[in-house]
Amino acid sequence: MKIGFITIGQSPRQDVINEIKNILELRIEVMECGVLDGYFPEKIRDIETTEGDIFVTRLRNGRQVKISVKRALMGVRECIKKLEEECHIIVILCTGEFPDIDSNRIVIEPSKLLKNTVYSIISRGKIGVLIPSKEQVGIALEKWKRNKIEPVIEVMSPYEDVNENKIQDLSERFSQAHVDLIVLDCIGYNASLKERIRNITGLPVILPRTLIARTLEELLDL
User: Which CATH class name applies to 112-206?
Assistant: First the structure.
């Protein structure tokens, strides 16, 4: 089965794909498309922004970049057109929200997976939400706030900020805020980070990569 993966940065995203493949025991054929594929460094510098609604992603060389939601949405639509000719299922490797996505294939949107999972298991209380950039706090609050549910937001980039002290500090703040579960709201967060936060807090931690893999497993009947 051929699966198409779209990153809002540059492909390949082996950091993400390899973890998904490990869960699926490598039983998929992968095609990738990146919104910033083919962009030269000068062009990328021109489109980087910290103003307005942004997404955080990474380039092929591992460097973090921030681009506008509008540009990401345009690029994702273009990638869908490229991938849907050959791929049975398409996965967007971003937990941001993408309205009006249209395709003749199944498109997995991690943001919907995350929200539906969280809201199916908790109806009241506090949820800890980890996001990659302070510019996204407002979006995250709007995204996760719901009647009887209060989001507690912490910020740590998966591409620049990960270190043991940072993980310890934000985990302790989640514990002190008495959250009921923690959502790692970025595709860049990995299984190792999930495990470290869970060990410190003793709380359930939801990881987008895992949800994607389990959803694919169910769809493909692997």
Answer: alpha beta
